[in-house]
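Technical note accompanying the year-one report. For the benefit of new consortium partners, we illustrate the data format agreed upon in the data management plan: each record pairs a sequence with a structure-token string. No post-processing was applied to the example shown here.
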Amino acid sequence: MIAKNNYPKSPTIPEGLTKLPNTYKFKAFFAIVAIVLFFALYTSLVVALFYLTKLAITYPMGSINKITILLKIGAIAGAGMLFVFTLKFVFKLRNPTRTNRLKLDSNTHPELWSFVHQICTETGAPKPKNIYVDPDVNAYVSYSNMWLSLLLPIKKELTIGIGLIDSLNLSEFKAVISHEFGHFAQKSMKIGSYIHSANTIIHGMIYDRDSWDSALESWRASDIRLSLAAWLITPVIWVIRQTLALFYQLLNIMYSSLSREMEFNADKVAISTSGSDAIISALWKLDSGFDYWNQTLNHAYLALSKEVYSENLYVHNQKLHEEHLPHQQKKLDELQAHPLGGIAYFTTTSTSKVGMYASHPPNDHRQESAKLPYIACEQDLRSPWILFSNPVQLQQTVTALVYKEYLQKSPTEFSSPEDFEHFIAQEKLGDDLLQEYHHTFAERHLHLEPIETLLSTSDAITAVSATTITDLKEELKKRMQPFQEIGILIEQAVAIAQGTATSSSFHFQQKEYTKKTVEEGYLKLLEERERILQEDFKQWDIDFCVIHLHLATRFDSRADLLHLYEQHAYFTELYSTVNRSKMAIMSAFQELQEQGQFEEGDQVKFSNLVREVVSLLNKCIQKIDTLNFSPLPNIETKQELKTLVQPSGELVVGSGNVFENQRLENCIQHIEKAIHSCHRIEQKSIVRILSHHKKLHEQLRASCVDQVV
């Protein structure tokens, strides 16, 4: 039995709170109709093609000659190919294998199991067969065997994300688990299994291309006397795929609509055990919970390059939560009261309209549903970790799973928590400075004029004051405003295209763009965004550099700052070269695809282009060897720098056809990793420059506050 003081209080609820509404039953009915229609169509198709194949085999040939023999073979082969096409995807149905979770034994974690069973008793839901934990910020319910669940009353399983436990208090945790048990009680979950099965079959038939398609293509390429049947069944395959594509859309629209109703109903179950606020405050906290866990995971990935491994990543995840707790509390204090009761965690936004394929309602819609009626309940602010036996050991075990499944590593030796925190601190070094400059360098390169030009312009400056620096920052703020406004319009355009925007159009440059013309407007926005990045910041960057060079000359650090500028210029060159390399390869590949079928000569030409692009990229990478490198946070040596950009020292494509042995895929993958590394390197270089500038500001204030130098 669970200790009474570890089970948060439940509210008094009105009768019928969790009763399924008519809209739920209505949508469940139509989802079932869509499933029945699909399986009836699919079964009819399989049976019809089976009999067509049987007829092709048994139909008498009449006179026997070369033509009738060829027709007989073609009929059998064509009908057989169609029959195999409709049936082959059934054999691809597999029960999902989840390797990123651990089963929790009831003897090892009795308090958690008792807590879950108490929720089952309170909600009237069936008890789970198993309880698992995985590394992430989530919780979900699933069948222990999806395919058997189509026919039999299979038990369900509960999976709890360790990141979720870090994010919530005990009442919110109870609400989230109760929400999942709301799904346990929903018979319409079985509809999801049928939808998933149907989608697997349809998606495979519409989009998958395998050895069957290769065989059909080879057959069509043979002598016309042999390939006639292949050409005849090709349009039949096209018609089948187009018909199934319509069913694919219908099934997913129907089920998405039902799924949203299921979420509302599961929320009501959560409210019945925890009140109206707990489930909504949990949703509110999950955004930051996702962010903190992704940061922790990213730090673990970046630390691999220095062989810094944490035995318990959740220690650092929890530290992130603790560091941001004051900020979270401040945001919470600023929230307004909701008219129906409690706090208004979410407000209606311009993108809170529900998309056709959205499986969850927007959070503000869930909030309104949860507070109608408003159910008050006392909150238990303790951590859910009190329900787990030996939390540290569990966290360490899941951390090992993270390294194995997510990072493809199996470390046997670990750094101390202090060393891992030091790595994180170095990685976050300068975040405040980047924010001070409105993150302008996250989206663009710092424009650097030739050193001689910077020096001559700097020497021509006669006066710099603290006011000059303030004015420079204010000017940047003004220049960032149009860029930020473009970003908001781009988000709006995307929402309109996806059908999730409450508005049906947006205005840009005195023209209105509707859903019909949203693509044109989107391209115009991207074009203007690029123009702003290329033109509007150039003069500001020049002023930014020369003003600080002038200060560096006054305070005897000119050589150091020039070196940082020169080093940054190389990093920008490297970053640009890597980006251009990818664009050149992908552009040429797209042109090749647009040709349709391409000859061996086209493949040779493309392979040579890839090798030429890679050669130029390698030459740029080799410049690291001659670089007068000034260490960056967490990148102390030239070898570390080079390994980050290209682990093997240079990108190797090899001779021959790049389409063989996944050479092209591997090449693009390495370039994409280099792009991410170059962005990180460039940001660290900017931080070094901004840190040097900050010291100059301090020296300026110390020497002569707001006086002309």
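Partners are asked to follow this layout when depositing records. The chain has a mean pLDDT of 88.
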